[in-house]
Amino acid sequence: MDQFLIKGSSRIAGEVTISGAKNAALPLLAAMILAKTPSTLHNVPLLQDVRTLIKLIAGMGIVIKKDQSTVICDTKTIDNFYAPYDLVKTMRASILVLGPLLARFGEAEVSLPGGCAIGSRPVDQHLKAFEAMGAIIKVENGYVKAQAPKGGRLIGCDYSFDMVTVGGTENVIMAAALAKGTTRLENCAREPEVVDLANMLVAMGAKISGIGTANMTIEGVDELYGCEYSVVADRIETGSYLAGALMTQGDVLTKSTSPLLLRPVLKKFEAMGATISSGDDWIRAQINKRPQPVDIRTQPHPGFPTDMQAQLMAICCLADGTSTIIENIFENRFMHVPELKRLGANIKVDGHTAIVKGVEKFTAAPVMATDLRASMSLVMAAAAAEGESLIDRIYHIDRGYEDVENKLRALGVHIERINPKK
Ligand code: UD1
Questions:
Q1: 73, 116, 157, 316: which one is catalytic?
Q2: 255: CA distance to ligand 1 center in Å?
Q3: Could you tell me if the CB of 306 is within 6 A of ligand 1?
Q4: Which ligand 1 atom sits nearest the alpha carbon of residue 96?
Q5: CB 28 within 8 Å of CB 201
Q6: Distance between CA atoms of 240 and 238, rounded to whole angstroms?
Q7: Is the overall model pTM greater than 0.90, yes or no?
Q8: Which residue minimizes the CA distance to atom 11 of ligand 1?
Q9: Residue 116 catalytic?
Q10: pLDDT (tens digit, 9 = 90+) per residue, 203-230?
Q11: Measured from the CB, is residue 171 less than 6 Å from ligand 1?
């Protein structure tokens, strides 16, 4: 298993080009299943999760080709509607093929994703909405077996999500796009990645109103067609590199991104004492003193994103005072706390709340990446720490950050990938 060896005491400074968003690329790839004619997707990040989804789609007999950051998909040759456990278990977002398969072909068999490190993460909202559209859903032997109602087509419905769910909203709008009649959804997720998916569906011929709001109306159409589309920039990757500047009194310029995608994060960076400047497609964070403490509570968009919680916590660890961090989205998303403590952080956790007393510096230690986003907080903390840190289980980081070593090196981080078995 690969590890990162990081020589610390770096000042994170320089320019980095941001990739397409993993969390947008995955639903957009799944949406390609809906199109009768070939689709082309640009700005697709080269990541383990993207490879997994491509493998899953290819396993259905669909022709899918990736060349650099472009993916072309032709569904003409599809011969099964099956998503096996061995792929789904490695990536929960695989469940996103359920809506498109069910809507277009009237049937699907998709392994139920298991729990994951950050919580149990059920998919009941996805399934309830499909049932409201007339689908017959059975969960058997760890698989969701879904069948459209008589006639082979889902039926538009009125549905209100019990909680804001990104994946649930995405799955259901994809299904509703090809349903018979109109679907009115309440309490939809408003994340930029949901907006990106809705925009691509519209480019494929879907009729959707209320995009970017909690209430979306989808008038089902008979067929959708391939389109050419480009994945939105990764706001979490952007925020993660900018966070490095705040941890090391640095200066980071992120390019090919947009300040509109991460306003709540930029506001917190400013509250911590950073100077944030931006243009249409760039953001720069500069700071030349210890960060100030802040209070954060994660919320669905446009609140503070849970995927930036670990990175913000790592900055708070070095702040001049005490910060409070409340995690509202996932029940078990403080696993990075013991790892940050190994680097010298002073954090106390009580349920969903972490109290972080700032310390002057991190000191190097061997640490273990615990989940995708948390792993980036540890990399940045190790870059800031005094001494040499070894980070284990970095496969988490490869799932979500494209070309991470080169990007970090360009920002002045001394990082080396090692494989103890080689
Ligand atoms: C997506 C993102 C993930 C991010 C999360 C929250 C992708 C591939 N992943 O995950 O990076 O951390 O949004 O912004 O886009 N829930 C239920 N029942 C459901 C669905 C969700 O109880 O049917 C709960 C979850 O357990 C969680 C909360 O709702 O507590 C939010 O989950 P959701 O927004 O669905 O997250 P994902 O789409 O899985």
A1: 116
A2: 28
A3: yes
A4: 8
A5: no
A6: 5
A7: yes
A8: 307
A9: yes
A10: 999 999 999 999 999 999 999 999 999 9
A11: no
Superfamily, domain 22-230: Enolpyruvate transferase domain (3.65.10.10)
Instruction: Determine if ligand 1 sits within 6 Å of the CB of residue 124.
Output: yes
Residue 371: the pLDDT is 86
Sheet holding 251-255, edge to edge: 13-17, 251-255, 282-286, 275-279
The reply to whether ligand 1 has any atom less than 6 angstroms from the CB of 184 is no
| Domain boundaries defined on the chain | 3-19+234-418, 22-230
Q: What spacing in Å lies between the alpha carbon of 329 and ligand 1's midpoint?
A: 8
| Furthest C-alpha separation in the chain | 66
User: Which residue has the CA at smallest separation from atom 1 of ligand 1?
Assistant: 166
Q: Kindly report, residue by residue over 255-282, the tens digit of the pLDDT.
A: 999 999 999 999 999 999 999 999 999 9
Q: Report domain 3-19+234-418's class.
A: alpha beta
Going from the Cα of 8 to the center of ligand 1, the distance in angstroms, rounded, reads 34
pLDDT at 345: 98
pLDDT band of residue 421 (cuts 50, 70, 90) is confident
Best of 121, 187, 196, 262 for a ligand 1 pocket test (most atoms within 8 Å of beta carbon):
121
Note the pLDDT of residue 118. Answer: 63
Residue 420 has pLDDT above 80, yes or no: no
pLDDT the model gives residue 113: 85
Q: How far is the CA of 113 from the centre of ligand 1 (A)?
A: 12
